[in-house]
Amino acid sequence: MFLETLCKRNINTIFYLVKIIKLNAIDSTNSYLKDLSKQTMLEDTLVVVAKKQTKGKGQMGTKWRSKEGESVAFSVFKRFNNISVLHQPYIAFAISIGVQTALEKLKIPSVSIKWPNDIMSYQKKVAGILIENQIKGTNLEASVIGVGLNVNESEFEGLPNATSLFLATNKKYDLDVILESVSEAILSQLERVSVSNFETLKLEYEASLFRKNKVSVFENTMGKQFNGIIKGVTDTGELLVEKEDQQLNKYQLKEIKLLL
Ligand code: BTN
Prior knowledge:
The chain is built from 5 helices and 13 strands. By secondary structure, the chain is of the alpha+beta class. The strands form 2 sheets. The protein has an 8-stranded mixed β-sheet with strand order 1-2-3-4-8-7-6-5, with helices on both faces. The protein has a 5-stranded antiparallel β-sheet with strand order 12-11-10-9-13. Helix 2 packs antiparallel against helix 4. The longest helix is centred in the C-terminal third of the chain and has 20 residues. The protein starts with a strand and ends with a strand.
């Protein structure tokens, strides 16, 4: 039913043996890894990739749909040592920077991070990230990091704000090569969390923010639209938006929507 492969990775000059479990079909690679982690002591950096997900999960309870054979859907199990729950936002910063870096290496044009962690090419979403953290006491024990990447799709019916690597570059990509480069870049960036490289991670994340320092239209929970300028994020991961009265306001994920 599944194929396991071992892959030697050079991550920041440390050689890791990354085990990859390749599944034909599963409900969700995130759910698969989470369930497996409850039954057995999973090894750090285990990767699970599925050709098809029947119940792919997106952020905030949404569904993630991807086309079999044209996209990459995978999850990584990452264990942490002595990382406080307070540092969870930095894990998310590192993962977003990892996906962005991998896409930039592939020469995908105008890659940015739409807060909190959608990966964009120009104005359209090319990849989504779902991070599910496992907490023990005040420590972050492990994360299941799910990435859905649109690769060779030539159209997105009913999704005007989605794009793929193919649509961005007019080139077709080998899905295994994409899996390898994106998962390697994520693990490499996460090494920076392990060595407490927090401040530079935040600065880099902020520098990559989609529509930073541009007047944008937002919608609040009451459905009211307002103009604001993205200025950065707080240490706890909230979005900092300057409103027309020049006040800097902070917002959590459920409190604000950036309208394209
Ligand atoms: C989002 O943008 O809403 C996040 C999408 C995350 C999708 C990926 S696909 C692999 C992994 N398994 C899931 O069920 N979800 C994530």
